[in-house]
Design brief:
alpha/beta; Carbamate kinase; nine-stranded mixed beta sheet; about 20% strand; globular
Length: about 260
């Protein structure tokens, strides 16, 4: 069977923005566990394909999308450290895991016609581009999805921090945090059915109430650069586009 031809770089252009969409350029942050679906470990192809369709819906609305994905489905540096491994070494292994996840997403995206680039903070030219800010911005302007891998290239940080960092560098209008639940609650809604949903909280609320949305460094970066964090369920098919259009349930973290 003949492989589908890749889109011509010269013809790739960003689509016109849907008037119902509030954010023109967003960064989508997902944990690695999202990619494992119902499995206990690794990458579930069906889940990755579904995420690809969700991202394509966002692109069809004219939204420019970049992505940061974790590696908890493959390896966690902190867990390695608990078992005696040097923490920095464990974190580097985790960074390589994010590259694996990024390549899996790229394959699924391009299979349904979304031109995609993976940029790694740790140079590995044989499989992806190095992170170059101006090149990444140009890719997004042309309507390509950019997946940022290997965190910030530094150990001792979760992928939340480079997500906030890349959102700032890419001049994103919002950072979308895809989780297993549809926003932030007063308690874990799975364990406590009486937990109440927040439609909006401030950055300080997240820190002082210990709401565990993202790590404190990521919250500080988002707050300093006035980037709202939109927490939504990435497990619900089509929900990414719904929230972008203001129709899906979510929680917005901002000072406004």
């Amino acid at each position: 069977m003949k492989a589908a031809a890749m889109p011509s770089l010269e013809t790739e252009t960003a689509r016109a923005i849907d008037p119902a969409v509030k954010y023109k350029r967003v960064l989508l942050k997902m944990s690695g566990e999202v990619l494992q679906g119902d499995r206990e470990f690794g990458i579930d192809p069906k889940t990755v394909d579904r995420i690809a369709r969700d991202v394509k819906q966002a692109l069809d609305l004219g939204v420019q999308v970049c992505i940061v994905v974790g590696a908890g489905n493959i390896f966690r540096g902190a867990s390695g450290a608990e078992n005696g491994m040097d923490r920095a070494t464990g974190d580097y292994i985790g960074m390589l895991g994010t590259v694996m996840n990024a390549l899996a997403l790229q394959s699924a995206f391009e299979a349904i016609g979304m031109p995609t680039r993976v940029q790694s903070a740790i140079p590995m030219q044989a499989v992806c581009e190095p992170f170059i800010r101006r090149r990444a911005l140009r890719h997004m302007e042309k309507g390509r999805v950019v997946i940022f891998a290997a965190g910030s290239g530094n150990p001792f940080f979760t992928t939340d921090t480079p997500a906030a960092l890349r959102a700032t560098e890419m001049e994103c209008d919002a950072l979308f945090k895809g989780t297993k639940v549809d926003g932030i609650y007063t308690a874990d809604p799975v364990k406590d059915p009486s937990a109440k949903h927040y439609d909006h909280v401030t950055y300080m609320d997240v820190l002082t109430k210990d709401l565990n949305v993202m790590d404190a460094t990521a919250i500080a970066i988002a707050r300093e650069n006035e980037i709202p964090i939109v927490v939504f369920s990435v497990k619900e098919e089509g929900n990414f586009a719904k929230v972008l259009r203001g129709q899906g349930k979510c929680t917005v973290v901002s000072d406004k």
